[in-house]
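In this supplementary section we document a worked example of the pipeline. Step one takes a protein sequence of length 405 as its only input; no multiple sequence alignment statistics are reported here. Step two produces a three-dimensional model, which step three serialises into structure tokens for compact storage. The input and output of this example are shown verbatim.
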Amino acid sequence: MTLQSQPADMVAVAPLVGNSNTEEAIWLGALLSRLLAAHLSTADLPVVPYEAVAEQLTTGNHKLPLDQGGVERLQRELALQTLIHGHYTLDDEGKMLGLKLIVARQGAGAAPLEASAPLAGFGRFIERVSLALIARLGTPIDEALRKQVRNVPRPASFDALRQLAQAYMAWAKGENDLALAAVNSALVIDGDLEEAAEIEVAISRMAGDSQTTREAFRRWSQIAQKHKQPLAAAERLMLLGHWLVERGEWAAARGAYEDARGIFQEEEDEYGQAQALNNLAHLDLYHGRTQAAIKTYRRTLRTFEQSPDGQVDVAFTFYNLALAHKNLGQRNEAQQAIERALALARRSKDPHLEARCLAQRGAIRDDLGEWAAASADYSQAFRLFDLVGDEKHLAIVKGHQAILF
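The serialised model returned by step three reads:
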């Protein structure tokens, strides 16, 4: 969402300032603010994503805590009607958390909201504070809204939130193993903490810890299942499959895709099943089972073509069909498929997919002896890969051009 397209009643939550000037306090303030923003979004309020607020604070050289001038400037920059900002007080000795929030609305006085609670009641406390903020913003509270707010994913305890802050802090410094230790602690405290499972995947991949990455993907998927989000669980298994393919672990990737397909089938999600089948067909293609791959691609095309949002999947399927037919020496079929894929890539304004289609068409034209046309395709593909910064495919195209010359 661009600033120009935002409705006039946009709401944002700025990072809260703690009562100590430590790095951990800064991260805790950020996580508390993001959590409040997530709760407000549940009430269908037009909330600016926390990441956009943080980015604007950085690029606009804002200083925390915000003074009145800083509040007004941030409201102008983000086209806000309401900015929520303030302080939190963490009393480790007394095991208490206090919040002092300012609801700054354009054309109205700043109204403070103050509350405190024992750390042991953190989850319920944040829920109550969020409902109070929602009411301050003019939204009536009913049972349905209470249930929506209650269901927002959040740490079950303040200790889990604190470990999450420690993980982000270490990760930002590149101390990946230390970050993983903090994530693990967060998950020991709260095994359903979805955000911890999500960043565990990212950190373990960055750290090159393959065993932890496998376990993290599975845990992330299992948490989605536990939260009654089976389609999210299946998507996470698909991501696991993609990562395993990158590593060349074909059998394990097939298992992940099959597990995802099983969930999609159970949920009667035909589109998801088609995507999982396509991923399995890619593995067939890699292992020389080309006819089986073609049969699957033809089958899934019907599902993708019937969906109004299936254009990109249709394009990728035609791209893979072109590759499969080329491998069988069926050059005319390959050329027809790649032309369909290229047209769809251009229609969807996807420069990366267009570049891949051009490179594939160049290879097909090379096989047909159409060398001038192949050279032109490779040159266009090279330009687009360079534009999107894909070094791997740039190298592949260079190799094709060298062979052609």
